[in-house]
């Protein structure tokens, strides 16, 4: 009998194989076409918000920052008497104006924080959000710009049978669909090619098949509704047409798959503005100074006392006040552990919830990538993947994953001053040159930026559970007594000990402290909405009174500002009104249905471009200042427009014009203009690249210098003699720095034969190191002070010393010095010692 069966199997083996193949393909196709996640259309709250999202949001209905601050100052506890016993009311707030405390106050204006504010306010809760810097000033504006599930994580899920990695990819793919649907003008599907190289063609074909199968699984996880476009094979000649710079030798073929691309900082801004439109009070440049805790005599430990509010400070004016809330959420990204330490000073680095990692990106001209295709480098030297992506008319390449210490993260208002490292730039260039036949060099780089990833890790002395999806029960809680004696369920696979940051999971986790502070950390841009949903679900679970007054999450159907009435025809409409095609397309993609407002400004008197070669115009500066809470020039240059991240030199060129326009809108005096110019140049220096864009010293002419100064100050400059004096003395100091640094470098390479030579060598090395700490095109604070003394001796006004020094920066460039000297010459009264 067995012999007959085996004989039939051999006889009909091709038939069996064919039938099995058909069944597998049919089953896979059926699995791919399943509806992974459906939205409950019978839910009245879902239907209500779906209809609300179809209405065009009037930008004038979004309260200004001034009104938001007024509302923040009005919030107390349930009675005025209790409020008055805690702190006096601000002068501008009457007792009759006081309102009850907020349900939820969110600290942090990044993607997660703004997402929590939007989620909570659309559930019917009273919400406030404060951000110590600008919205998206940290990691949320420095991402790779991808909305993706994570191809690398899927590989781990398959090869290592990692269920958690599979859940992470699945959650991110579902969220990718929501982001693209809710903000179609800011996000879209992007085809990405994966080139496969191998000197042996058959082995390369096997790699192609492996990548194809993996990406088909990646595609199928999205289901029918979440599918962007099918994955397909692209031959080497066709790939070369899309990427002319792609190396041809040993190229076996490419696989093309689809992920999302978005404008990250504008996405975050629109989330905040949408939350504000629906009733949340959101304000940038408002810093949390301290927590206000309930004075409970029965609780001796400060860390155990319940948080009832926060002490806030307006970073722009220095005003302070108290704001109260039932729940405070810490969503500060890479600063979550600092906020936790503010709540509990006993916490140490061993209790940290995040392991920070620096990711660096470089910006190249558009010619290095295809206009409509991205490229994924499947494996870098450090085991990561790298991307080459088209973004806003340029090419973005990266990223790195370098562990850093908490001490290396800039504090609060300086969080945006994250300086990229030269070795990371070289690492990215080396990886690109393995795939491109036109070598990338340092001179091709137009801008560099770095962001800090707040990767979540689990302290070994905490009882915890990690959230993998939207599960409101799973959060971690601090042990009530001695942490060292607490029982732990921590798995060694969830800690960072002995692991690189590239291996740390991108899951998010939520902690509840004994004082009631809710902290969210980890995750990534793509999953911000799911993270926000988890946080608000946890708040509802922990506070039944809030849970009874709120609804289930509805943010899957809440469109962001600018999306309701946007279609692809907006570009054509703008063009028909005499707006240039490139500018029209740019306005449509960045402002959605609000591009008509910006277009009206463009057609009135704000049509001039900020810098040649880029579509950003003066109208955007006016719109950002009036309707998008832009308070500083860098808010406009880096986060409302993206000019600073696309080209450092272009942003420096546009800076005087931006200050001039914002100065008119915000009524800045000369001293304020000088301060903003200094701060902005300090920021732009962190986007450091080689100074080739300035065309050497030939650019620093008398006429150019006068134009910069007069544009910044919106008034007359100094005399030609004074301008030329500053230029000449600056270059004397600058050249002296270079000469001494080179001399120190040369002498340090020689051999030492006695103690004196050893000491001299050490001094030279120290001096050389200090000289190289200066950014290109800058002189030190001490040299600036010497220059100011020389200027005051020649031109007879020692107040120029204060004009140069009052911003406190440790190094200054030529134009900061010129602007300061000219400001003092034209407005001496603002630099008197009693001005303070």
TrEMBL record:
Using the UniProt annotation, give all residue ranges assigned to the region (Disordered).
Answer: 475-501
- Domain named Alpha-glycerophosphate oxidase C-terminal: which ranges? 553-671
Q: Where is the FAD dependent oxidoreductase domain?
A: 103-462
User: Belongs to which family?
Assistant: Belongs to the FAD-dependent glycerol-3-phosphate dehydrogenase family.
What's the protein here called? Glycerol-3-phosphate dehydrogenase
Requisite cofactors: FAD
Give the top-level enzyme category.
oxidoreductase
Where is this chain compositionally biased, Low complexity type?
481-501
| Lineage of origin | Eukaryota, Sar, Rhizaria, Retaria, Foraminifera
The protein's UniProt keywords, in alphabetical order, are: FAD, Flavoprotein, Oxidoreductase
- Record InterPro entries: DAO_C (IPR031656), DAO_C_sf (IPR038299), FAD-dep_OxRdtase (IPR006076), FAD/NAD-bd_sf (IPR036188), G3P_DH_FAD-dep (IPR000447)
Q: Which SUPFAM superfamilies match?
A: FAD/NAD(P)-binding domain
Q: Which domain of life is it from?
A: Eukaryota
What's its EC? 1.1.5.3
Q: Name one Pfam family in it.
A: DAO
What is the catalytic activity of this protein?
a quinone + sn-glycerol 3-phosphate = dihydroxyacetone phosphate + a quinol
Q: Which is a GO BP term held by this UniProt record?
A: glycerol-3-phosphate metabolic process
């Amino acid at each position: 009998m067995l012999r007959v069966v085996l004989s039939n199997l051999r006889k009909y083996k091709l038939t069996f194989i064919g039938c099995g193949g058909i069944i597998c393909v049919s089953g896979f196709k059926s699995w791919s076409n399943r509806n992974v996640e459906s939205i409950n259309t019978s839910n009245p709250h879902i239907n209500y918000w779906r209809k609300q999202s179809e209405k065009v949001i009037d930008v004038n209905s979004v309260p200004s920052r001034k009104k938001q601050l007024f509302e923040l100052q009005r919030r107390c506890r349930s009675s005025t008497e209790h409020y008055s016993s805690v702190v006096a009311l601000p002068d501008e707030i009457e007792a009759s104006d006081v309102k009850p405390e907020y349900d939820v106050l969110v600290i942090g204006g990044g993607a997660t924080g703004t997402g929590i504010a939007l989620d909570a306010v659309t559930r019917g809760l009273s919400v406030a959000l404060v951000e110590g810097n600008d919205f998206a000033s940290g990691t949320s504006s420095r991402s790779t710009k991808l909305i993706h599930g994570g191809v690398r994580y899927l590989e781990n899920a398959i090869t290592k049978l990692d269920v958690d990695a599979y859940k992470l990819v699945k959650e991110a793919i579902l969220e990718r669909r929501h982001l693209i649907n809710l903000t179609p003008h800011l996000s879209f599907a992007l085809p990405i090619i994966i080139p496969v190289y191998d000197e042996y063609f058959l082995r390369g074909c096997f790699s192609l098949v492996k990548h194809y199968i993996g990406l088909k699984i990646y595609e199928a996880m999205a289901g029918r509704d979440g599918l962007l476009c099918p994955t397909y094979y692209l031959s080497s000649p066709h790939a070369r047409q899309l990427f002319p710079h792609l190396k041809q030798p040993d190229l076996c073929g490419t696989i093309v798959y689809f992920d999302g691309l978005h404008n990250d900082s504008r996405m975050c801004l629109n989330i905040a503005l949408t939350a504000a439109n629906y009733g949340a009070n959101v304000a940038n440049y408002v810093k949390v100074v301290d927590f206000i805790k309930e004075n409970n005599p029965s609780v001796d430990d400060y860390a155990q006392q319940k948080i009832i509010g926060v002490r806030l400070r307006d970073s722009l004016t220095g005003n302070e006040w108290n704001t109260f809330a039932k729940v405070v959420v810490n969503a500060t990204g890479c600063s979550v552990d600092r906020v936790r330490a503010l709540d509990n000073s006993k916490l140490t680095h061993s209790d940290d919830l995040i392991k920070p990692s620096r990711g660096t990106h470089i910006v190249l001209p558009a010619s290095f990538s295809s206009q409509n295709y991205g490229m994924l480098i499947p494996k870098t030297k450090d085991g990561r993947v790298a991307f080459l992506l088209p973004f806003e008319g340029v090419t973005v390449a990266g990223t790195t994953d370098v562990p850093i210490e908490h001490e290396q993260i800039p504090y609060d208002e300086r969080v945006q001053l994250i300086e990229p490292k030269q070795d990371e730039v070289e690492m990215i260039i080396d990886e690109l040159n393995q795939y491109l036949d036109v070598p990338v060099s340092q001179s091709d780089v137009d801008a560099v930026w770095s962001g800090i990833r707040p990767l979540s890790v689990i302290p070994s002395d905490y009882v915890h559970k990690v959230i993998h999806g939207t599960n409101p029960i799973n959060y971690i809680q601090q042990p009530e007594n001695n942490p060292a004696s607490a029982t732990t369920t921590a798995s060694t696979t969830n800690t960072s000990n002995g692991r690189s940051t590239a291996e740390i999971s991108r899951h998010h986790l939520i902690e509840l402290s004994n004082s009631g502070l809710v902290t969210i950390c980890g995750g990534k841009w793509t999953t911000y909405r799911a993270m926000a949903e988890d946080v608000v679900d946890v708040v509802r679970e922990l506070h039944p009174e809030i849970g009874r007054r709120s609804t289930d999450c509805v943010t899957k159907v809440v469109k962001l500002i600018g999306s309701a009435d946007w279609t692809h025809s907006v570009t054509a409409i703008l063009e028909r009104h005499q707006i240039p095609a490139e500018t029209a397309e740019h306005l449509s993609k960045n402002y959605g249905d609000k591009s008509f407002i910006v277009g009206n400004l463009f057609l009135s008197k704000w049509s001039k471009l900020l810098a040649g070669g880029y579509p950003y115009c003066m109208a955007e500066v006016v719109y950002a200042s009036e309707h998008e809470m832009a308070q500083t020039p860098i808010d406009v240059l880096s986060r409302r427009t993206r000019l600073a991240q696309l080209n450092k030199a272009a942003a420096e060129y546009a800076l005087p014009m931006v200050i001039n326009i914002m100065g008119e809108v915000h009524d800045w005096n000369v001293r304020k203009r000088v301060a903003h110019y200094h701060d902005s140049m300090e920021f732009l220096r962190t986007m450091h690249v080689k100074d080739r864009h300035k065309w050497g010293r030939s650019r620093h002419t008398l006429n150019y210098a006068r134009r910069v100064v007069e544009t910044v100050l919106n008034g007359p400059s100094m005399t030609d003699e004074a301008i030329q004096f500053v230029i000449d003395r600056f270059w004397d100091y600058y050249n002296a720095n270079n000469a001494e640094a080179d001399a120190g470098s040369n002498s340090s390479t020689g051999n030492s034969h006695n103690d004196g030579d050893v000491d001299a060598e050490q001094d030279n090395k120290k001096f050389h190191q200090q000289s190289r700490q200066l950014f290109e095109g800058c002189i030190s604070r001490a040299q600036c002070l010497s220059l100011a003394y020389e200027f005051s001796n020649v031109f007879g006004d020692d107040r120029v010393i204060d004009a140069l020094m009052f911003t406190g920066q440790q190094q200054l460039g030529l134009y900061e010095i010129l602007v300061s000297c000219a400001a003092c010459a034209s407005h001496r009264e603002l630099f008197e010692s009693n001005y303070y």
